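[step 3/7] inverse_fold.run input=structure_tokens len=353
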């Protein structure tokens, strides 16, 4: 019988399990803190619990579903990508980006993706399956242990890897809640950013829950005709419906929302497109303060899409037009392109070898 993945259970479930084994009440917290706070890879490394308990935990649970198969580092040494093999032979990729004062981890929530965005390598490979909450968590703990050895700690987690997080909503939120637990990794909710392509019902659910997690929406076009050629989901949830839903989010939570825009040369990078976008986003200026931010990034290349990245000059002009309309905008630096670790480039081994 396949063992239960330890990271798929919460502290209450662990308490119940250890109680049924006749262990004292404090043992579950010791185990939990050993794995999540002290970042021990297995119970064998948790020295303040009895050896028989360590053995039983190893018999009952798996602590390593993800098998690192390939790790690549960018030439500048600032980006590392690992391909993990799952027990059913599916695969995911996870990316660590190192900055001067930050260690940002980009994690996956699905193997493949069902959204089919034309310029995204993950969308081009199709949907394989959802990850469990534990498989999402294990990516974070794997890298947290790795950089702890170097005297560093994770500062940010972005759910922008393979898959659509809101297509796997429950497992995604369970994973964040467990990583946010005060007796564990205790990573603040505001250190997480979820990126969605625009699943309107899930954005509405997220709004009602009033979480402190940052929300980013992959917009990429403000006209339905153009956006539908890039993002098939737009035919079900068109721009007007999506923007109204996003405005409800900022009105309800008073939290800023980020819109992501991959700049594709001669497709969506003109001054006219920036002007249309800026005028529509003025809806997000509430009480004189813009509760939105636009992140633009030149398109990253993928094998299945022929579009080209915008030029730096056109990116700067796009940003200037948005700022002229009082919409904050940043041009994101492309990271890890040489190892296909940039936004929209994550896929499986076959496409990366």
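[step 3/7] decode complete -> sequence:
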């Amino acid at each position: 019988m396949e063992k239960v993945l330890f990271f798929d259970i919460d502290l209450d479930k662990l308490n119940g399990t250890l109680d049924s084994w006749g262990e004292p009440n404090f043992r579950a917290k010791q185990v939990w803190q050993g794995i999540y706070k002290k970042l021990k890879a297995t119970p064998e490394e948790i020295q303040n619990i009895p050896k028989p308990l360590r053995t039983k935990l190893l018999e009952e649970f798996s602590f390593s579903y993800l098998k690192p198969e390939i790790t690549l580092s960018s030439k500048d040494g600032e980006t590392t990508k690992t391909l993990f093999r799952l027990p059913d032979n599916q695969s995911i990729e996870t990316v660590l980006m190192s900055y001067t004062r930050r260690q940002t981890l980009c994690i996956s929530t699905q193997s493949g993706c069902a959204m089919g965005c034309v310029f995204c390598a993950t969308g081009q490979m199709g949907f394989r399956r959802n990850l469990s909450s534990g498989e999402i968590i294990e990516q974070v703990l794997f890298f947290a242990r790795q950089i702890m050895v170097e005297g560093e700690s994770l500062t940010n987690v972005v759910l922008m890897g393979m898959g659509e997080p809101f297509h796997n909503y429950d497992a995604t939120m369970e994973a964040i809640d467990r990583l946010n637990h005060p007796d564990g990794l205790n990573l603040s909710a505001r250190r997480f950013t979820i990126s969605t392509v625009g699943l309107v019902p899930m954005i509405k659910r997220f709004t009602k829950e009033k979480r402190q997690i940052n929300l980013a929406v992959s917009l990429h076009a403000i006209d339905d005709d153009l956006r539908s050629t890039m993002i098939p989901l737009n035919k079900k949830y068109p721009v007007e419906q999506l923007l109204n839903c996003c405005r409800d989010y900022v009105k309800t939570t008073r939290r800023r929302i980020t819109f992501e825009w991959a700049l594709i040369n001669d497709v969506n990078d003109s001054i006219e497109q920036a002007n249309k976008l800026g005028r529509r986003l003025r809806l997000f200026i509430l009480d004189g303060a813009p509760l939105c931010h636009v992140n633009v990034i030149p398109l990253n290349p993928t094998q299945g899409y022929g579009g080209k990245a915008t030029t730096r000059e056109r990116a700067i002009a796009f940003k200037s037009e948005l700022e002229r309309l009082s919409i904050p905008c940043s041009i994101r630096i492309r990271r890890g392109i040489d190892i296909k670790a940039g936004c929209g480039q994550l896929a499986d081994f076959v496409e990366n070898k």
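[step 4/7] annotate
Residues 4-62 form a domain with the DNA polymerase; domain 1 fold (CATH 1.10.150.530).
Confidence is low (pLDDT under 50) at residues 349-353.
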